[in-house]
Amino acid sequence: MGQGRGFREVLSSFIATVFPTDTLLGALKVMERHHVQVVGVVGAGGGLVGVVHETQVLAGWRTDPLAQVSDVMARVRKTHAVLTRTRRLARLHGRRGGGQKLF
Fold it and tell me: Which is higher by pLDDT, 94 or 101?
């Protein structure tokens, strides 16, 4: 993920997403359908909770193709620094009369 990219921008850059409770078989089908090797993993609220690469799916596949994506995905978490920077940018935007709420 590129430096300086916002959390929502990163989430929106995924062509396809799966849920943590989806099976590895299901994730592989999504990857094949969209011709991608990486998909975002979204939680119940729609936020990005992880990413999973085809190599992770295939490695888990050897053990159990019906295992959940959450068993092999790389977890993503918002760090304090990212949240602080986002809040600072939102305040700055408000002071300049941006008028729109960023979040």
Answer: 94
